[in-house]
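Justification of resources, computational component.

The compute hours requested in this renewal are based largely on the per-chain cost of generating structure records like the one below. Each record pairs the submitted sequence with a full structure-token output. That output is archived, and it is also reused by downstream analysis tasks.
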Amino acid sequence: MMEVNTQSPTSSQADDHGHSKHLAHHFDDVHQQFDTGKFGMWMFLLTEVMFFAGLFVLYAVYRSNHPEAWQFAAQFLDTKWGAINTVVLLVSSFTVAWAVRNAQLGETRKMLINLVITLLCAGGFMVIKYIEYSHKVHVGLVFPQLEHSLFNPNITAEASAKLAAYEQGEVFHQIEALSAAERNWVGKFFSIYFCLTGLHGFHVLAGMVVLSWLILRGMRGDFGPDNFNAIDFGALYWHIVDLVWIFLFPLLYLIN
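The structure output for this chain reads:
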């Protein structure tokens, strides 16, 4: 008589169809599921890079045609804050990579600590960008289309007087000393600056949402050696966010 094996996988590892509870039914095994997810994540990140590609090309063309305007404009960016933000993102990339390793080893507590540190670094980055943006707004180094912009040819007398009075008007007088053509190109630098850093900042905020979601799932006990895909994919997204800033920092802040 043929012996029938009645042993079934444990509920912690399988569902009622004999599959791992972390394995979707349309995949053959967890390795195929991980590879497919990783490939899909890379395709998504490729589209994200394309967001920045056009702005990088525009930056390169304008800078090559008007290098003196770019060098003049870069002096109004705070290299200290830019450098601090670079260090903050590098630390966050280390901690999120460590969190992936913690998940692979089943070290839930360490994984959560590293994810929280990464989230705090992201928050710190955005606080510093707020400080930088706030200063640019107050001195008028903003999009030329805005009413209080130093580069707006139709700036009102009231706005102009307010900018001239702020911080002894140091920035105001330097910009006012430029010719109309020079002021136009310096204005274009700040337009590109806000587009590039603003788009990057939006991705940082999206990353903070992802990190918060991973932390909540980690607290629920969803991750471990047999299920760390979401942590790995989230970390990959965060590394791309970090990499984009590694290009932005020298291109914008270190022109001189």
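The first helix runs from residue 30 to 65. The radius of gyration is 25 Å.
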